[in-house]
Design goal:
This protein is of the alpha+beta class. It folds into two domains: 116 residues, Orthogonal Bundle (Arc Repressor Mutant, subunit A); 154 residues, Endonuclease Chain A (Endonuclease, Chain A). 52% of the residues lie in helices and 18% in strands. The chain has ten helices and ten strands. The strands form two sheets. The protein has a seven-stranded mixed β-sheet, sandwiched between helices. A three-stranded antiparallel β-sheet has the order 1-3-2.
Length: 277
């Protein structure tokens, strides 16, 4: 039959299975067929043909004719299609009723949920080194205007390994205050020099109270060392709170004003080294 693949596709769109659609199209070619003839004509598996034809009869698209060999005949297309459309319409009406019932049942829970927010949802607590590095990278990539940093050991990501930070220093306002202890590690100092060459403004102070990152005067990330034990365990908190960011930026500016430039810090460190040599 011309256009048979399209007819099969359209019939399945009205709710028939592919086998049912092929069987119905095959039945159209003659007044009646045996099951074996339908299977052969429609290229359907013999072991499935009786189930397929029985389904067509049940749906009102075919009729069976008893005899020594049962034969099957197609119902006229105008009646068959009308029945398929009607069944589809009933299915859609049922689906719409079910959808309306689900909306009515789910909406109160949704409305109630919006009214109950976690008062601390803007605070994250991180302890795993991998999670800390990943979150720090995300925050650096989110910078729109400015990033301010207090850098002191222990490092989750040492300056010489912070590749993402270099990109931020080249394209945004970036200022960092470092502890003088960074001069004890040549690799760290080399990394800091790379940041300065990329555009970062840097200052150096004797000591810093904590590790700190302030992004766009909105998000802060700060670390607190465990006061008990070795002091190496680090808890990092990320807080999205402009008021807290404003207060911490004021503290940052205070340390910045006290800080030395790289050249001044190098001279002071050199003098110390000669006095202790």
């Amino acid at each position: 039959m011309q256009g048979e693949p399209r007819l099969i596709r359209d019939l399945t769109g009205l709710g028939l299975t592919t086998y049912e659609a092929k069987a119905y199209v095959a039945l159209l070619g003659r007044d009646s067929f045996t099951a074996a003839q339908v299977a052969r004509q429609g290229q359907l598996p013999r072991q499935r043909i009786y189930d397929v034809l029985g389904s067509l009869v049940e749906k009102g698209l075919a009729s069976s004719r008893p005899g020594s060999v049962v034969k099957y005949a197609a119902v006229a297309p105008e009646l068959a299609i009308e029945r398929l459309v009607a069944a589809r319409r009933r299915s859609m009406e049922s689906l719409e009723r079910t959808a309306a019932e689900m909306i009515a049942e789910l909406t109160p829970a949704f409305t109630s949920g919006r009214a109950h927010t976690d008062p601390l949802e803007y605070i994250e607590v991180l302890r795993d080194a991998g999670a800390i590095n990943e979150r720090f990278a995300e925050l650096q990539n989110s910078v729109k205007h400015e990033i301010l940093v207090f850098t002191k050991p222990p490092y989750a990501t040492p300056p010489q390994e912070n590749v993402e930070g270099l990109g931020v220093a080249r394209s945004h306002t970036a200022r960092s205050v470092y502890e003088m202890s960074v001069f004890d590690d040549p690799k760290v100092i080399a990394g800091i020099r790379t940041f300065i060459e990329a555009g970062e403004d840097s200052r150096f102070v004797e000591s810093l109270p904590l590790k700190l990152v302030i992004i766009d005067e909105t998000i802060v990330m700060f670390g607190m060392q465990d006061p008990v034990g070795s002091g190496r365990d680090l808890t990092i908190m990320v807080v999205e709170h402009p008021s807290l960011a404003s207060v911490l930026k004021a503290a940052f500016e205070s340390f910045w004003q006290q800080g030395l430039t790289l050249e001044e810090a190098e001279r002071q460190h050199g003098l110390r080294s000669r006095r202790t040599a």
